[in-house]
Amino acid sequence: MTDEVKPRRYHSPRRARQAADTRAAILAAARELLAAQGWAATTVAQVARRAEVSVDTVYASVGRKPQVLRALVETALSGTDEPVPGEQRDYVQRVLAASGARAKLRLYAAGIGALQQRLAPIFLALRDAAMTDPDCAALWREIAERRRVNMLRFAADLRATGELRADLSDEHVADVVWSMNAAEYWVLLVHERAWTPERFVEHLADTWSRTLLG
């Protein structure tokens, strides 16, 4: 009998760190270009030049243009370098832990204010891309469905406080919150009307409290 020698897996922390840095540089370059010139005008070659890597490196590290956009959306939603499920995000945890509907709405509004500062330009690029690219259209539908489910969960959490108006269904509450936490609403008030993020957050919390609570 002979002992079978299994090949040793090679793991280099330095190489992993370099790969992570390369991916981060690619995503940062893509984020800047998409925010400045939109989906149609941004090419993988431009992203590669700005990140100071080859086009092949972009493909190997992140993927094709739709995959780059997906990575940007997911990291913007999470606020981290890697995607984080919605229920595990910091501001969602704070909302769930809060007692009272007004406190939950205020914390959620603050979370949306921080989120849209990094998400809005990317989400609008995704909206435009979804009109012509099937992969981006599928991502748009996926994100829309995730938002729908999350808003219904939020409405149920608010309902459990006993403070929601009795004449409003959870679906109605979810739709009101969903319409006002959208990137388009942020752009209208913060970009077009020059509201500060702080004013936007206060507006969300105040309007939701006045509209939804008894």
TrEMBL record:
Pfam families: TetR_N. Keywords: DNA-binding, Transcription, Transcription regulation. Signal peptide: none annotated. It comes from Pseudonocardia xishanensis. Gene3D superfamilies: Homeodomain-like, Tetracycline Repressor, domain 2. Residues 43-62 bind DNA. The keyword Calcium does not apply. This is HTH tetR-type domain-containing protein. Residues 20-80 form the HTH tetR-type domain. It comes from the Bacteria.
